[in-house]
Amino acid sequence: TTILANAAGFPVGREGPTVVIGSNMAFLWCEEFASPWVKQKIEMSISDDGLSRVALLVDEERFAHATRIQCAVGGACGMAMIFNAPFGGVLYMFEELTSVFWPLDLTFRGFV
């Protein structure tokens, strides 16, 4: 099964599954706790018949940004846990996110 897992591109080894589990847990927590903060209800009133309706707006960019950061922090927590090295987890975040972006608050969150 190891040969098939490597051929398929699955994370194999002791750090691969831990990083994936950490990122998945962070994604679920972000979905649960950040989702209410990016939703906004707007009351729309129609003047002809006097009916008012409520529309739900979701800021997808803000939610995607929060999810991306939380998944990186979750993966770094998994990396830090498996090797018992918190600085290694922060360096892992640098490695994963430097090509796209690197917010400074992510460094602080990684150390906390």
Topology:
Elements lengths: L1 H7 L6 H19 L5 E7 L6 E7 L1 H24 L2 H12 L6 H8 L1
Antiparallel strand pairs: 1-2
Helix pairs in contact: 2-3, 3-4
Question: What do these coordinates show?
Answer:
The protein is an alpha+beta fold. It is built from five helices and two strands, in the order ααββααα. It has helices at residues 2-8, 15-33, 60-83, 86-97, 104-111, and strands at residues 39-45, 52-58. A two-stranded antiparallel ribbon has the order 1-2. The longest helix has 24 residues, at 60-83. The radius of gyration is 20 Å and the shape is elongated. The model has no long low-confidence stretch (mean pLDDT 77).
Give a brief outline of the structure:
By secondary structure, this protein is an alpha+beta fold. 62% of the residues lie in helices and 12% in strands. A hairpin with a 6-residue loop joins strand 1 and strand 2.
Structural class: alpha+beta
Q: Tell me, what's the shape?
A: elongated
Beta strand count: 2
Nearest-integer average pLDDT: 77
Poorly predicted ranges: none
> Radius of gyration from the CA trace?
20 Å
